[in-house]
Amino acid sequence: MKISARNQIPGKVKTVEEGAVNAVVTICREHHNPIKADITMAAVKDLGLVEGKECYAVIKATSVMFATEKLPQLSARNQIEGTIVAVKEGAVNGSVTLEDPYGDRFVGSITNAAIEELELKEGKPAVAIIKATDVMVAVD
Predict the structure, then answer these.
(1) Alpha helix stretches (DSSP H) within the chain
(2) What is the DSSP letter of 119?
(3) pLDDT in tens, the chain (140 residues)
(4) CA torsion 56→62→67→68, rounded to 10°?
(5) DSSP for 74-107?
(6) What CATH number does the domain located at 7-138 have?
(7) Which of 12, 50, 75, 90 has the fewest CB atoms within 10 Å, measured from its CB?
């Protein structure tokens, strides 16, 4: 599978919380923070998502936000702590890469102004924040 989404994180389905139209799929990444995806029930059935099935959390870089610390009162379901390993500024927007303690990398595309205001620099701790509705699920 080749796609343009910068973030393709492997894992296994831990749980599928079914609703009338949507489901929240929890993707386990070994021994660390699971990633939650809010997808349609049709997608759950089409992909055959059941507990233990190998899959990928797929996230576009434009859907990854950053903070300097975890935010306890936030509706976004995914907050991944790590260290900034790369920052590349462009004309208006830049690319920030965060690596969690287990080696998974999350790339986000944010404004240069946000990079400067948050003082995002290589080696600095940060948190990647991703809404569950921005997480797609893929299978081989």
Answers:
(1) 41-47, 112-117
(2) T
(3) 689 999 999 999 999 999 999 999 999 988 778 999 999 999 999 999 999 999 999 999 999 999 999 999 999 999 999 999 999 999 999 999 999 999 999 999 999 999 999 999 999 999 999 999 999 999 99
(4) 90
(5) -S-SEEEEEEEEEEEE-SSEEEEEEE-TTS-EEE
(6) 2.40.50.100
(7) 75
Start-to-end C-alpha separation, the chain: 7
Cβ pair 81, 129 in contact under 8 A: no
Query: Coil, helix or strand for 53?
Result: coil
Q: Using CA atoms, how far apart are residues 50 and 100, in angstroms rounded to an integer?
A: 26
The percent of the chain in helix, strand and coil, each rounded to the nearest 5, is 15, 50, 35
Instruction: Mark 35-66 as b/e (b = at least 16 C-beta within 10 Å).
Output: bbbbbeeeebeebebeeebebbbbbbbebbbb
Distance separating alpha carbons of residues 33 and 62, to the nearest angstrom: 21
Determine the residue type at 31: H
Q: Give yes or no for a contact between 136 and 5, defined as CB atoms under 8 angstroms apart.
A: yes
- For the entire predicted model, the pTM comes to 0.95
Query: Quick one: how far is CA 134 from the chain centroid?
Result: 8
